[in-house]
Design brief:
single chain, 2 domains
């Protein structure tokens, strides 16, 4: 097994684990939603902790999924323009937007980390969980985005093919 195929196999395995975590997050969110409905409408005794868990799981699901599960072809783009320009121009667009995003995430990362770290002094209303645990996913998301866009810029500079954006041409 070559080192490249081994790295690809490891990346696939990690992606499946990231998908497993997303499933756990969504399942937890759904279970808490059902518990809240049962307590509110059957027992006439609403509980607040379920809302706190649902909001936290939703935040983690969205940012976790965007960082580790969504592929480049699944991201939102101005397809009307992007799909109708030559490959070389797409690569230039990839480099420009990639460098801009790396810069923006890089500039905001220290402040985001400081804020999330500072929030350890606060606790959530019902579960009394440190707030920094609830919002730590943003720092994870930012670092993952910086890494992703560094890779995309590197590939674009090396002449790699841009992600397909035309839904009719994307194979499942």
């Amino acid at each position: 097994m070559t080192s490249w195929s081994r790295a690809t196999a490891i990346a696939r395995w990690l992606r499946r684990r990231a998908e497993n975590i997303a499933v756990i997050l969504l399942s937890t969110m759904f279970a808490c939603f059902i518990i809240q409905i049962f307590f509110r409408y059957v027992l006439n005794n609403p509980v607040g902790w379920t809302e706190e868990v649902v909001i936290t799981m939703w935040l983690w699901t969205v940012l976790w999924g965007a960082a580790f599960i969504l592929g480049e072809a699944e991201e939102i783009r101005f397809d009307i323009i992007y799909s109708n320009i030559p490959e070389s121009v797409r690569r230039v667009f990839t480099v420009i937007t990639g460098v801009a995003l790396i810069t923006l995430y890089g500039i905001s990362l220290p402040a985001a980390y400081k804020y999330v770290s500072f929030m350890k002094v606060e606790r959530s209303a019902y579960l009394h969980v440190p707030i920094n645990w609830m919002y730590a996913v943003f720092v994870i998301f930012s670092v993952a985005c910086i890494c992703r866009y560094c890779w995309l810029v590197y590939r674009a500079i090396r002449g790699g093919k841009s992600p397909a954006t035309d839904p009719a041409k994307i194979a499942d």
